[in-house]
Amino acid sequence: MSLDSDDVKRIAHLARLAIDEQDISTYATNLSNILGLVEQMSAVDTDQVSPMAHPLDEVQRLRTDAVTEQNQREHYQSIAPQVEEGHYLVPRVIE
């Protein structure tokens, strides 16, 4: 697909971009090349290709899920303004 200067001006207007007149031919060429590449990629048969989440088949290293701190709930709740049955009490904000 080939774009002309009127197409570039229309696209720039829709995107609210200011383009200098001397740059319009360069934009037209670059945008035409991009659209040509998209057309080439669309022509490739991908019916037998399964989608993948990532191009590299690697496993993420995760740390072991282990408790590293002791329970300090009583300590933290001792400085809270209001606590009841192990829950923090807060002012009602929704009626």
Helix residue percentage: 25-40%
Structural class: mainly alpha
- What's the assembly state of these chains? single chain
> What is the rounded distance between the termini?
60 Å
Give a concise summary.
The protein is mainly alpha-helical. The protein has three helices and two strands; from the N terminus they run αααββ.
Note down, in words, how this protein is organized.
The chain is 38% helix and 4% strand. The protein is mainly alpha-helical and 95 residues long. The chain has a two-stranded antiparallel ribbon. A hairpin with a 2-residue loop joins β1 (83-84) and β2. α1 (5-14) packs across α2. The longest helix has 20 residues, at 24-43. The two termini are 60 Å apart. The model has no long low-confidence stretch (mean pLDDT 91).
Highlighted features:
single chain; mainly alpha; 95 residues
Question: Topology of this structure?
Answer:
Elements: H1 5-14, H2 24-43, H3 73-78, E1 83-84, E2 87-88
Antiparallel strand pairs: 1-2
Helix pairs in contact: 1-2
